[in-house]
Write a structure and sequence with these properties.
alpha+beta, Alpha-Beta Plaits, two-stranded antiparallel ribbon, Nucleotide_cyclase, GGDEF domain-containing protein, Rev_trsase/Diguanyl_cyclase
Length: about 120
């Protein structure tokens, strides 16, 4: 997993950006101020670097959930939860995925919670 962390860290090299390993094969990325196209481009480069590791550690894929924090928003636990919901909202795939947390995901999550009560 060190090689994976190094590959991700090489791309998350801006001021205030970081890569942290969560549990098992989960990594958290904090990337600074970019619009969706730039985020997707950066994640594409990261996925390419992960693909280059397949000869040494086997095939890898990146299933990415993204939550864009607003200025002044500081609750990282909520941001991580929203990104995780976005990641899990995509059907399982052998391909890399990148999903942004959106109003439709938020509404679907609220509707599911309402049905449970």
């Amino acid at each position: 997993m060190r090689d994976v962390c190094a590959a991700l860290s090489a791309e998350a090299d801006g001021e205030g950006e970081l890569v942290a390993r969560g549990e098992a094969d989960t990594f958290y990325l904090f990337l600074q101020g970019a619009e969706q196209p730039q985020i997707v481009e950066r994640l594409g480069r990261m996925a390419g670097k992960l693909a280059n590791l397949r000869d040494t550690i086997g095939p890898l894929r990146a299933n990415t959930g993204i939550y864009c924090m607003q200025p002044g928003e500081a609750d990282l636990a909520d941001a991580e939860a929203c990104a995780d919901v976005a990641r899990k909202s995509v059907e399982k795939s052998y391909h890399n995925t990148c999903t942004f947390y959106s109003e439709s995901i938020k509404n679907r999550q609220r509707d599911m919670a309402t049905m449970l009560y």
